[in-house]
Amino acid sequence: MLQIGPLLLDSPLLLAPIAGHCDLSFRILCREQGGVGLASTDLLNSRAILNGSAKTLELAATNDLDNPCGMQLYGNYEDPLPEAACWAIDHGAKLIDINMGCPVDKVAKKHGGSLLLRDCPSTMRLTERIVEAVRKHSGGRIPVTAKMRLGWDREHFVAPILARDLESIGIQAVTVHGRWTVQFFSGKADWERIGEVVAAVKSIPVIGNGDVTEPQHVIDLMRLTNCAGVMIGRGALRTPWIFRQALELLQMGDNPIPERVFAPSFLYKCQMIRRHIDLLTQFAPSERHALHTMRSRIAWYSKTMGPIKPLKEAIRTALSLAEMVSAIDSWIEMASEDQEIRHKVVGVGAEFLG
Ligand SMILES: Cc1cc2nc3c(=O)[nH]c(=O)nc-3n(C[C@H](O)[C@H](O)[C@H](O)COP(=O)(O)O)c2cc1C
After folding, report:
1. Per-residue pLDDT tens over the stretch 181-216
2. Do 63 and 36 share a structural domain?
3. 96 & 30 share domain
4. Catalytic residues
5. What's the CA-to-centroid distance between 311 and ligand 1, angstroms?
6. pLDDT tens per residue across span 28-57
7. Are 159 and 78 part of one and the same domain?
8. Does 10 share its domain with 151?
9. Domain range spanning residue 325?
């Protein structure tokens, strides 16, 4: 469990926002696999929310299957972040997260994201306004958190001091991606420095993030840094069941038995892809969008599925969701038969041995 202000999460494992990937369908898919304590929307532009931009409102969409849902906002010191936060609360957010880590030029040059790491006094004033607005609007029900990198570059390791100062003005958890802004996504996440942020805050939870791609990494990161939770991004795109596996490991305590951890079969993975298509059918803004999403996803999923070139090709060339469904259904059928045969073989073998 993980307590973030008044919000109690069932699991200390969080799905990271990944713009263009962690949409409503994918968040629900990961939650259904198990082990996800919180998932957030991708970064939302505060002005676009208040202007009613159709694209941004789509990104902000959530529902009962996507609970508890955080909404992540970005903006600079002049942007209407407090107002956008109130809007988010009215539209289902159970937590407001401020993006202080996006390195992409479009965002970090003028609109916010990692820009907020460059002028900490202004960031403090902005955050104070957001925290106050959210407190008033929600009656203290909704926590405000920040997601940051270590700093802009190695010469500016601001995360420990910034996290401590943010705590003093009411931020209720901090997520730290262990890279510098100038690194974008290159190199390795520096987990040791995440530990320095944990040591700097008084009592709020720090959530470690960066390069967690195996369930065991969750244990390693928590042990090394003492962080209270772990956020997983790209690892979940490949294996959405990683949260369930990591939670099982965590629940085993000091003597985890990795062989006992849930290991999805080939059939399970095919069924999960089918479920993802179903969710896209229900929640994607258009069939075109759903097709595009699944074409990119199959590349991630295939990384753990062995030789499935014909399935990848069928998904890539499908002209409708119905075609995609029929392609995956035939693989489900083949995998079910295969599993049945294998069961029988094991059965016969067992009788023979007996
Ligand atoms: C394509 C892409 C888009 C991302 N979009 C966001 C975003 O919208 N908000 C955010 O806070 N972080 C974003 N991130 C950063 C991730 O949340 C996470 O901090 C980073 O990928 C490191 O974690 P990982 O190694 O588990 O993926 C993005 C990362 C990638 C690769």
Report:
1. 999 999 999 999 999 999 999 999 999 999 999 999
2. yes
3. yes
4. 102
5. 28
6. 999 999 999 999 999 999 999 999 999 999
7. yes
8. yes
9. 266-353
